[in-house]
């Protein structure tokens, strides 16, 4: 069955996609909701140029849809309907692990577009899950985090040791509650690693971000 991936550019959406493919589903298109100017992703703050690189490495089209928080849901449903018709989709794949309100929302918007929401990572153990991601060849970098972690974590490649360190500090090693977000640099779905532009680090309103140079 053909599917669209809700693609954040990070490890969870990547591993969910890998799991869906392993289960026999066929990827057709990636969907990312951008900020209103269409230049940076809403969820992970990634520039469209990096998301496009990831899509090209997978040989898949990317739909980057500008949205405000006010029209986010309406636009999400509209684009799901469009993609369903264009790519003959039956399902949409999401990388959520256990936030029930997120699953409820995904079930709702997919039902509105006559699609089935699939969450391959749902309710799996965090530290086991992140270790599986790494063992399965996902190379991923921390690109934003809360101030509990701090700017020193930005730009770090996630390893089993780092995940265990976060776990021991009481930080979700998957960052499921928004503690941090990641960028997949390479994985088995890619034809090769993406190239990253130069970046700087900033802290704004209790959250630390990588700011990418224009490319």
TrEMBL record:
Q: Pfam families in the record, alphabetically?
A: Diphthami_syn_2
Keyword terms, alphabetized: Ligase
InterPro entries recorded: Diphthami_syn_dom, DPH6/MJ0570, Rossmann-like_a/b/a_fold
Provide the top EC class: ligase
Q: What is its EC number?
A: 6.3.1.14
Q: Which GO terms describe its biological process?
A: protein histidyl modification to diphthamide
List the molecular function annotations (GO) for this entry.
diphthine-ammonia ligase activity
Cross-referenced Gene3D superfamilies: HUPs, putative n-type atp pyrophosphatase, domain 2
- Domain Diphthamide synthase: from-to ranges: 3-210
Q: Which SUPFAM superfamilies match?
A: Adenine nucleotide alpha hydrolases-like
Which PANTHER family has this protein been placed in?
Answer: DIPHTHINE--AMMONIA LIGASE, DOMAIN OF UNKNOWN FUNCTION 71 DUF71 -CONTAINING PROTEIN
Please identify the protein, giving its name as recorded. Diphthine--ammonia ligase
Organism of origin is Flavobacterium yafengii
């Amino acid at each position: 069955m053909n599917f669209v991936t809700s693609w954040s550019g990070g490890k969870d959406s990547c591993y969910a996609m890998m799991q869906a493919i392993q289960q026999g589903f066929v990827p057709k298109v990636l969907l990312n909701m951008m900020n209103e100017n269409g230049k940076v992703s809403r969820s992970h703050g990634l520039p469209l140029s990096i998301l496009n690189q990831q899509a090209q490495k997978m040989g898949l089209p990317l739909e980057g849809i500008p949205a405000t928080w006010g029209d986010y849901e309406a636009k999400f449903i509209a684009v799901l309907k469009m993609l369903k018709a264009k790519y003959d989709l039956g399902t949409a794949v999401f990388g959520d692990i256990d936030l029930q309100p997120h699953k409820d929302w995904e079930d709702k918007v997919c039902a509105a577009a006559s699609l089935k929401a699939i969450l391959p990572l749902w309710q799996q153990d965090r530290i086991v899950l992140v270790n599986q991601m790494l063992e399965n060849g996902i190379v991923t970098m921390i690109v934003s985090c809360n101030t509990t972690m701090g700017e020193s974590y930005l730009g770090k490649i996630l390893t089993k040791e780092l995940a265990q360190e976060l776990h021991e500090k009481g930080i979700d090693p998957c960052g499921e509650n928004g503690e941090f977000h990641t960028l997949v640099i390479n994985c088995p779905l890619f034809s090769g690693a993406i190239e990253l532009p130069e970046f700087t680090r900033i802290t704004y309103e209790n959250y630390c971000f990588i700011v990418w140079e224009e490319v």
